[in-house]
């Protein structure tokens, strides 16, 4: 008699400058198994305003899936450098997130274990497992283009966390101020003009890291045909496959895979 293995499920949360997105995820298949919820990120986006909204929305997602009694792992992707569950920087959110123990504040409010990581790293984990990075070796970047520009760096499929290359300096300021997706709409640029700004950023990344592949994600990836053909950077550039769900899926993966048969690994 064959044995059917139960799916591993976890909650994935993606915190952005404009919205908080989350869902219950089947982490073995990389698919959402519950309602995908999105609520506006409170403004100002301080921990005191964001964390209660996050907790309420997580509980709502669990109830909607009939999972309110399950101790599901919860993974949270943050637009920040994250070390041991503590946000060490604040990109496109309030400066009060610097040195904030997000995992420590969430854990008492949720039944399951909590894992916090950089949001672009979360998206990258999903793309490398289920998306455009499947089977890719060598150096691969997954860049998320949205309110800012996040970067996930992988070498032979292994994540090198917290690269934050949106904040490398080009022309005397953060590169993401010109290459993030929102920069195109804020400045009223054509796809051609914005692609030139993005291309300059990608050339700078290539000079430093010589990647084999660059995967471009975020909502703008659905319009990949409007800007990727205009890029001149040396490595291959392809659109992400999971698009806006990548951060949710990757955060859930990170949370679920820190626990084997219910035993925590060494890191929170």
What would your notes on this structure say?
The protein has 268 residues and is an alpha+beta fold. The protein has two domains: 9-121 and 246-264, Nucleotidyltransferase, domain 5, CATH 3.30.420; 135-241, ATPase, nucleotide binding domain (Nucleotidyltransferase, domain 5, 2-Layer Sandwich). The protein is 28% helix and 26% strand. It contains seven helices and 18 strands. The protein has helices at 47-64, 102-106, 119-130, 176-179, 181-187, 191-209, 246-256, and strands spanning 9-15, 19-26, 31-32, 37-40, 74-78, 82-83, 86-87, 100-101, 114-118, 139-145, 149-155, 158-160, 169-170, 173-174, 213-217, 236-239, 259-260, 263-264. The strands form five sheets. Strands 1, 2, 3, 4, 5 and 9 form a six-stranded mixed β-sheet that branches. A five-stranded mixed β-sheet has the order 12-11-10-15-16, covered by helices on one side. The longest helix is centred in the last third of the chain and has 19 residues, at 191-209.
